[in-house]
Specification:
This is DUF6701 domain-containing protein. This protein is mostly beta strands. The protein has 1 helix and 103 strands. The strands form 23 sheets. Strands 3, 5, 6, 8, 9, 11, 12, 14, 15, 17, 19 and 21 form a 12-stranded parallel beta sheet that branches. Strands 25-42-39-36-33-30-27 form a 7-stranded parallel beta sheet, with no helix packed on it.
């Protein structure tokens, strides 16, 4: 009788302190053997026993584990194995019907089956891990259905995220069964026993994943915890080893970062996940061994939180090649990172941080305690990356940007009858040659106070900068100051060059006004090397009329000599009026004759300043004394900014300009290797402006490769590291001068060059980029852009260490595989890498930027002969490039094929490898096989030899009395180069069970159409063989040292029945042979069977009596 139960489970609400599922008991909870999630249709026969009881009610679970494999998982196709061992994952699509016995050699094997909408069928009478601990095997089935055949015995944990699970009668499962959806049907006499997992149960990261985070972002901004501009920040003492590079230059830790509070979490256990995603992982210690690879998938940030101190073993790879913002590693205590690790993450420790030698870290490292970094490390940090972190409660809250100082700029001279323009800037950087303006709204008072006691206060509100018109009516020196600032500046205010006297502004009743300059945002601005004025520069002599208004000073038109001087930095280029060089302030005045009109107004001849900086143009004229009046000296000044005309950008490598615009360009350079980068601020005559010492904006556009249509995310951004360690990340899309550029740099002397600089220029990726530069002075449109490329990989590497599926080369049977046997596994991944000391994958090695041809090779006994050419014999390993990695496009299983019409081999010292030929000259590293002219040309997958043999299946002739069963021997042989020998290395080939009578098929010998386990018997004489039931196989069907352990048994023909028969049996293609002698190696083996003989025929040498 079958009982049908529809079960609906209510999920418990997970508290905010439980953000992470890390217990296998969440999925296999016990004490009953079946667990379920949500609404499941359950049909269980009354005879089913669960832990010896009829109570088979499902135990409710609260979490669903959606089976997700790493992005680089290779699906192995059909599951063929008779033994498995400790693996992180094995991905299959089906279970071969012949595999009915599976043992576990060591550790915990995890078998993933993606049914792809089909059914995974475990065969009838299968023996899976029988006698083994269930903790040594986890079977995960999803995206389809699961059927367990009648009589199967399974010692394992089974997790089914499927539409249906059907367990046929007489099945025994020891371990646990969890069903998350659909239907569960259990037939008669099934036995299920729950066994709690023991301490050796290590299903790798299956039981570990981050749940949806519930802590809102709080605390400081992530950029305040990881501020940059380079990798290291520490509150305690710091020690940096030799040859350690930060963004290509020296490492200078800072200590002005924000120390966050520890989040409220509930850690437990050791971190063992090798595939992580957005969320919080809470642990007490690190549980992975050296060389572990931890991959991030999806978007957001995985926060690895450790309650105390944590030690990361050597050669660990965490998010290698990914964006650092995808991973944060946080320890309440200290963090130590062993040597030779590659980590792309942001790292914070509440205690000290110790980093061993030869580490490559992309991201930021902040220690509340001390920091110790050993030698030869490479560290890269783009401070903008911290803005992309999802903090999950650790960081991400708002923090008010600070104002370091307010800067007051003026030209030093004013008139009581006119307003004097004063510029105020809110600067976030320390006082220096430039100001990084705050983006926050600020309010303050500008105050001008004189010795007379006269004072003027002007309230202003602005963001970044503003211009103020100051009307001061008393002829005296007024001192400028700021008070009542809404955003307090850490270092108060400064005036002009920062001297105390620079805040003094002298007001006179009479003097010159200089005007006519081009005005930008209310302030005068001109272009270096070009004529000034709109359209001309003008000068006027004025005086206070006693009411606060200006009136012309001169009493009539006429020519007067006016002295001019210019206030410029030392070493500046010249300033000319009408071609005459003007003296610099402090070195006298240059007299220029000007014609003034009746309004005391004159136009200046052509004014050109050839440099780029802030200048002040001074004018003076002395009116001689008369009998009535003393001599009067009129003075005036006007400050202005003269900007560069543009920026010229040049990139060179080995004397060649790196200006290839696309994938066809022949001017190339290796990613990660230094190249020469020069940026020059020039005037309108293309001459360098050496006085340009200002902040410039930097932006980088990725020209190619770009994501193909419908393949978003297939390419990624690269980092241009230069400018004393700034890492400038590329973006897709052009920039214009009005855009906000992502990075800034303080240019000095009007030029930047990477050659000989503390941070040489490198670009991390393959492709072509365009560098944009602009003058960051408000209103300036000085701009430059230049294509830089083409960047190629520096080299290719055969990466075996990170391959989790198979190790290098795996043969079908020990170290032996038959030719054309589709069970040869080659685990390989070729990666295109950049040229950094610790290389990274160039993921933009895609599409038209791929210039390489990759081929597999095979060499026997190091004889320098490629057995995979000219005819390709390694089949089924078709590979392709994807994001800088070359690997099999389907799986790692294929074959080394036979020749079409002849036997060859054996190749008992065969090594398989890979060869890369690149038109750009990029080479595969560490070549060690197929030497040509003394130089290896390929790289071997393994230094262990494989035995590749031409095999055949042989059935011996047999005879015996008609009253007894007739046993038939079988064996497998290989060609030893001269003759056929029994293949004593074959302990793996299995005889597909012969089913009688349905396995016997009609038709002539060699007529084809047989399936696995089927055979033909053809009578060669007049006797009718219909009296016998056919062939059967008793007990073991395995070959041992090439010989069938238990013979095939034919039923007795019956007394006086003496048939002579031909027996054909269907064998695998790789063991078929040319038995007909027509050079076609597709024949099944045959033999002759004779009933009614008690001894051999003297004329047939090969006949012999065979016992039972």
């Amino acid at each position: 009788m079958k009982t049908k139960i529809v079960l609906t489970f209510l999920l418990m609400v997970i508290s905010t302190s439980m953000l992470y599922a890390n217990q296998c008991s969440d999925f296999f909870p016990g004490p009953r053997p079946i667990a379920g999630l949500g609404s499941i249709d359950v049909e269980i026969e009354d005879s089913v026993r669960c832990n010896g009881s009829s109570n088979c009610a499902l135990v409710a679970i609260n979490n669903k584990r959606s089976p997700t494999l790493p992005s680089n998982t290779v699906n192995l196709g059909t599951f063929y194995l008779n033994s498995v061992q400790d693996y992180s994952y094995n991905a299959y699509r089906s279970w071969h019907s012949s595999v009915n016995s599976v043992s576990v050699v060591s550790g915990t094997a995890v078998l993933y089956f993606n049914a792809q909408g089909n059914e995974i069928e475990i065969p009838e009478n299968a023996r899976i891990n029988v006698g083994g601990d269930p903790s040594s095997l986890l079977i995960v089935v999803y995206n389809g259905s699961l059927e367990i055949g009648e009589g199967a015995i399974i010692n394992a944990y089974i997790y089914a995220d499927t539409e249906e699970v059907e367990i046929e009668e007489n099945v025994t499962i020891n371990g646990g069964l969890t069903v998350t959806s659909g239907e569960l049907e259990i037939d008669e006499d099934v036995t299920l026993n729950f066994e709690a997992s023991n301490s050796s149960f290590n299903p790798h990261d299956f039981c570990e994943f981050a749940t949806t985070p519930t802590i809102p972002d709080s605390g400081p901004s992530c950029s305040a915890v990881f501020p940059g501009p380079t990798t290291f920040s520490a509150k305690g003492s710091t020690s940096i080893g030799k040859n350690t590079r930060c963004n290509g230059g020296t490492c200078s830790p800072i200590n002005n970062f924000t120390v966050p509070s520890n989040p409220g979490v509930s850690p437990s256990g050791s971190f063992r996940a090798t595939n992580i995603s957005d969320g919080v992982y809470e642990h007490i210690s690190w549980g992975l061994s050296k060389g572990a690879v931890v991959r991030f998938s999806g978007s957001g940030t995985a926060v690895l939180y450790f309650a105390g101190s944590v030690s990361i073993p050597k050669e660990t790879r965490i998010n290698a090649g990914g964006a650092p913002s995808n991973v944060m590693i946080i320890a309440a205590g200290s963090i130590s990172i062993a040597k030779d690790s590659v980590i792309n993450a942001h790292i914070y420790a509440g205690g000290s941080i110790s980093i061993d030698k030869d580490n490559y870290i992309t991201g930021s490292v902040s220690a509340s305690g001390s920091l110790s970094v050993d030698k030869d490390g490479v560290f890269v940090y783009n401070s903008g990356d911290a803005d992309n972190i999802t903090g999950h409660g650790f960081c991400g809250g708002a923090v008010a940007p600070a104002v370091d100082h307010y800067l007051i700029t003026h030209d030093g001279h004013g008139l009581t009858c006119a307003s004097e323009q004063i510029t105020i800037q809110a600067c976030t950087n320390s006082f220096g040659t430039s100001c990084t303006e705050s983006t926050d709204a600020v309010s303050l008072n500008l105050v001008a106070t004189g010795a007379s006691g006269h004072s003027v206060t002007i309230p202003v509100n602005f963001s970044g900068n503003t211009s103020v018109d100051l009307k001061y009516t008393v002829p005296e020196i007024a001192t400028l100051s700021i008070n009542n600032a809404g955003v307090a500046a850490a270092n108060g205010y400064r005036c002009n060059n920062g001297n105390v006297s620079d805040c003094n502004l002298k007001f006179d009743n009479a003097g010159f006004t200089i005007s006519g300059f081009n005005m930008v945002n209310g302030s005068p601005m001109e272009v270096a090397g070009a004529a000034m004025g709109s359209p001309n520069v003008n000068i006027q002599a004025v005086k206070d009329d006693g009411t606060g208004a200006c009136q012309p000073y001169f009493t009539g038109a006429g020519q007067r000599d006016i002295g001019f001087a210019v206030q410029v930095p030392s070493g500046s280029l010249k300033y000319t009026i009408d071609g005459q060089e003007i003296s610099t302030l402090g070195n006298g005045y240059t007299s220029i004759p000007l014609s003034f009109n009746a309004q005391s107004f004159a136009e200046l001849p052509t004014n050109i300043y050839y440099d780029a900086t802030d200048i002040v143009l001074h004018a003076t004229h002395t009116i001689p004394a008369t009998l009535e009046n003393p001599a009067v000296t009129l003075t005036g000044s006007q400050g202005l900014y003269v900007r560069p005309d543009k920026f010229i950008i040049e990139a060179n490598s080995g004397g060649n300009s790196l200006d290839s615009a696309d994938h066809t360009g022949s001017n190339i350079h290796a990613a990660g290797k230094p190249f020469d980068l020069t940026i020059t601020a020039v005037n309108a005559q293309d001459t360098q402006t050496p006085s340009f010492t200002r902040q410039i904006g930097l932006a980088l556009e990725r020209i190619g490769p770009l994501d193909p249509v419908g393949a978003a995310g297939s390419t990624r951004e690269g980092d241009l590291v230069a400018f004393n360690g700034i890492a400038l990340r590329s973006q897709v899309g052009a920039f214009v001068v009005s855009d906000s550029f992502p990075k800034t740099y303080e240019m000095t002397g009007g030029k930047y060059t990477s050659s000989g600089n503390s941070a040489e220029a490198t670009y991390s990726e393959v492709g072509v980029v365009k560098l944009y530069v602009k003058d960051n002075t408000s209103g300036s449109v000085a701009f430059g852009k230049q294509i830089i490329g083409r960047f190629t990989p520096d080299h290719f590497t055969l990466d075996l260490k990170s391959m989790p599926l198979v190790t290098e080369v795996k043969n079908a049977c020990g170290d032996m595989t038959y030719m054309s046997q589709p069970m040869l596994e080659l685990g390989y991944r070729v990666i295109a890498e950049n040229g950094f000391n610790t290389p990274g994958i160039t993921k933009n090695y895609v599409g038209d930027y791929i210039k390489s041809t990759v081929t597999l090779v095979a060499e026997n006994n190091q004889d320098n002969i490629n057995r995979n050419a000219p005819t390709e014999r390694l089949i089924g390993f078709d590979g392709g490039w994807s994001q800088g990695e070359y690997k099999s496009v389907v799986d790692n299983i294929g074959m080394f094929t036979r020749k079409a019409s002849e036997v060859d081999g054996p190749f008992d010292q065969m090594r398989f490898g890979i060869k890369v030929v690149d038109s750009d000259g990029v080479a595969l590293k560490s070549l060690d096989m197929l030497t040509e002219v003394g130089t290896p040309t390929a790289k071997a997958f393994s230094t262990t030899d494989s035995k590749i043999r031409f095999g055949r299946w042989v059935i011996e002739n047999a005879y015996g009395p008609e009253t007894s069963v007739l046993p038939v021997n079988m064996q497998v042989e290989f060609w030893d180069g001269t003759t056929w020998q029994t293949n004593e290395l074959d302990n793996c080939t299995a005889l597909i069970e012969i089913s009688s009578p349905t396995g016997r098929k009609s038709g002539a010998i060699y007529s084809g159409g047989l399936a696995d386990g089927e055979y033909r018997l053809v009578e060669l004489n007049s006797f009718n063989y219909g009296n016998t039931k056919g062939a059967t196989i008793r007990t073991n069907t395995q070959f041992d040292q090439g010989r069938l352990v238990n013979k095939v048994i034919f039923d007795a023909a019956g007394e006086n029945n003496t048939p002579k028969l031909k027996f054909e049996y269907q064998v695998p293609e790789w063991l078929q042979y040319d038995w007909q002698g027509n050079s076609n190696f597709t024949d099944n083996p045959i033999s002759e069977l004779q009933f009614g003989l008690f001894r051999g025929n003297d004329r047939i040498i090969s006949w012999r009596e065979v016992g039972n």
